[in-house]
Design goal:
Blueprint (H helix, E strand, L loop, with lengths): L1 H10 L4 H17 L5 H16 L3 H18 L5 H16 L3 H19 L4 H16 L3 H12 L1
Helix pairs in contact: 1-2, 2-3, 3-4, 3-5, 4-5, 5-6, 6-7, 7-8
Amino acid sequence: MTVAGLVEMNLDRRSSKAESLLTDALAMYQRLATGDYDRVALALSHVGTLRETQGEDDVARGLYEKALGMNTRLHPRGNPAVASNQNNLGLLMCRQGNYDGALKMFKASMKTCQTVFGNEHPRTAQALYNLGYIYQLREDGEEAEQFYRRGLE
């Protein structure tokens, strides 16, 4: 159900079918699960992405934050889902001009990626690039260059 919703969302981000599939999947997982559950966190993130593409940033942020909280409780030592949630929040905050919040999320994502994947992984390199980008937006060229270079190593 969630996969079909993601496919539909990628085909047409305004699709009511995508919205229906993703929100139905979330509702189903929430009904079946008690407490924190990986599938609920994933569905929260997917619905958050849909809401963000629909311009509902506040709703998206709330869903991303719920997903991050749930994944952090489920995986206190880190997990790819935690890194993705941190990255999604950072990207949303960056797009909204909240560079301090984005920086905090991107730093957390980088740390999680280093813990989970190690320093030589493409996800870690992407996290370093995101940090470089946020420093560039903050007009700190030296810091931006440092992170860009680290991402290329």
